Amino acid sequence: MKSGDIVFLKAVGNNARYRNDTYVEEYVVGSIGRKYFDVYKDGNKSRTIKFRLSGLRQHTDYSPDWKLYFSMQEILDEEESERLSGKLREIFNSYGKINLTLDQLRRISQIVNEQIK
What we know:
By secondary structure, the protein is α+β, with helices and mostly antiparallel strands. It has helices spanning 72-92, 102-116, and strands at residues 6-11, 24-32, 36-41, 44-52, 66-69. The chain has one domain (6-116). It contains 2 helices and 5 strands; from the N terminus they run E-E-E-E-E-H-H. The longest helix is centred in the C-terminal third of the chain and has 21 residues, at 72-92. Pfam families: Phage_ProQ_C_like.
């Protein structure tokens, strides 16, 4: 990461509470220090958001309003992962017979066993 790079900030926590869809804004990396770096939007360097270099978490005394990503694809991949994980939780977090074929269960079992090894 260097000054002038484009990053994407996704609204999280209270900042995302009343928004209907994923809210993402494009920012530019400003100054980079030893512990923190700043990002700004639309050439307005007077209104910056500070992030920690270690962990890339927004530097604040409260809960963060933004989560930083280096590409829009990272955001899309994270959302797809959350959606698919939710679907699997719905299927397997229930009592009774699971509505999957034996072949589907074998393929899922094979994938799960890959993760365990």
